[in-house]
Amino acid sequence: MSVVLQNSSGWVLDARSLIDRGYERCVRCTGHLKSRVKCSFKRQCFQISKSHYNVSGAATVDGKHTAVMQKTDKRSKKRKRKHSENQGEIDAKAFHEKVRGVILEGTKSLVDSAQSAGYLMGEAEAVKDSPPSQDCRLAALCEMAKELPLVADEEQEWTRSLFTEEGRVSQVDLFSQVTENREAWAALVSLMGEEYIIPPNTAFLLSDFTRLQPLVQSGRRFDLIVIDPPWENKSVKRSRRYSSLPSSLLKRLPVALLASPGCLVVTWVTNRPSHLRFVRDELYPHWAVEVVAEWFWVKVTTSGEFVFPLESPHKKPYEVLVLGRYRPTDGLTSPLKTESVPVEDKRLIVSVPSALHSQKPSLSEVLKLYVGAEAECLELFARSLQPGWTSWGNEVLKFQHVTYFSLEAEAREDGADDPAVALDCSLPEKSDGLEVSSLPANSAES
């Protein structure tokens, strides 16, 4: 039930179910032992049961009382100084007024339909456990890996299988090779001294922005590229959750070397109008990408209410996606057949968001209509992996860490018919690739 329903306004997604689909078959490899495990993303990550504000009608999607808002925080009672709007705030208000009706009416249509089908009815039993957290050192490791010399092209093997032919975990270099799990099952393996769950038929590169060469040199061309840039904003600077990237540097992404003709390019954009203008007017033209649609991800609670009031002056319950088609000017190759399927404008993707910062819902099921079921798909600035996709980022394994999953040993009488169980999953004595022990022990964490 990953796609709960679809209508003319868009889609309702069950984001957690979309994740779990990749782990229906999972094998844990520890030393010389192997075992099948039931694996699912922790339920409490998607238990957003209340709006972030205590609102009298403000978080509902029926269009009533959307201007009434009261914070539960006592700080709201303090007298605030008069504030004169800057141009960015004026532009943000204008954009919101432009899309407000689409968000309100489309969300109501989708939520009403979902509730008629028994979804978004609230949780019968609350999950008491807090969402998991894990100190992610991946970005710091990538920063240190930049000090290692690059190997000459003719000497470098740009892709490497996660497993050897004998079923052992390969001596992969996660920082300078594209690592592939070519098996049809998920694997729980030890990498750099930590346990990660790698989905089936997936590939990934863990590297800094300046070390994209292995992905380019691997020779793959993609029919779908989803980009989730670490946009600069004050909230990120204050929280220091991750390093942001100046908009101008995004132009250096080698999209022309990664995209097939007609490739669908989808970029997540914050609600800052300056970021949206940059993508539409500078970034996409620089990449020879033609804008074809603008969609919205609407975040709702498990009861179907907006997670933030629609009229909140600070945070909105929606984010923007800009969709475009790569149009190379050489004219030497044919576009995708799926280009005959038009990408509708102003569509909504409604889902309960993750409580984990910056974890976006998978777009695979929604976008396959426009790129084909067999499309080669790539995610840039990824923090997780998807079955059948290639992913890149300096935190690409962040949400693959075992702490985000619930594991249960799977009892079985005979696993002979399961190719995963038949493999020798023995691990080498040392961890793969760049050893954590070879890096400074007091490295800064991201």
Automatic annotation (TrEMBL):
GO terms for molecular function: nucleic acid binding; RNA methyltransferase activity; site-specific DNA-methyltransferase (adenine-specific) activity. InterPro entries: DNA_methylase_N6_adenine_CS (IPR002052), MT-A70-like (IPR007757), SAM-dependent_MTases_sf (IPR029063). It comes from Fundulus heteroclitus (Killifish). Pfam families: MT-A70 (PF05063). GO terms for cellular component: cytosol; nucleus. The lineage of its organism: Eukaryota, Metazoa, Chordata, Craniata, Vertebrata. Belongs to the MT-A70-like family. This is Methyltransferase 4, N6-adenosine. Residues 64-89 are annotated as: Disordered. Residues 74-83 have a biased composition (Basic residues). GO terms for biological process: methylation. PROSITE patterns: MT_A70, N6_MTASE.
